[in-house]
Specification:
Blueprint lengths: L22 H45 L4 H13 L8 H13 L3 H9 L2 H6 L1
Length: 126
């Protein structure tokens, strides 16, 4: 390393006692933004997951009813989904069967869409 170049230096955080009086309010306001953004992101991801799980279950249910095949196909689907989406979780045979049961229990897609959108009339039914 060239001796004329020095490694970057990063300032350390100042001591709390040396911060201005307005700093705690700024920290609280920014923390509220972070918490709200995090909560919204988690809610959006969960809504998407719910819709996706229903759609997967509906595909499985429809195909089983049309073709008459049994649960061994679910085991094959599980293996192939895990292979296709390496690192993804939630595609065990048990979970795929839960998705199928979910779609069978609520066959009306509008009900699931309302649940995903979070409308108040659906919340009371869930």
């Amino acid at each position: 390393m060239d001796e004329t170049k020095t490694a970057p230096r990063f300032e350390s955080a100042p001591a709390r006692s040396s911060l201005p009086d307005w700093y705690p309010d700024l920290l609280d306001r920014i923390s509220a933004h972070v918490a709200t953004g995090h909560r919204r992101a988690v809610t959006a991801a969960n809504k998407e997951r719910l819709g996706s799980y229903w759609s997967i279950g509906k595909e499985i249910l429809d195909r089983q009813q049309a073709e008459g095949w049994g649960s061994r196909v679910i085991y094959r689907l599980s293996t192939d989904l895990k292979s296709r989406f390496s690192g993804a979780k939630g595609y065990s045979p048990r979970n795929l069967k839960y998705m199928r049961t979910f779609a069978a229990a609520w066959p009306d897609p509008s009900f699931v869409q309302q649940a995903v959108l979070g409308t108040s009339s659906t919340r009371s039914r869930l």
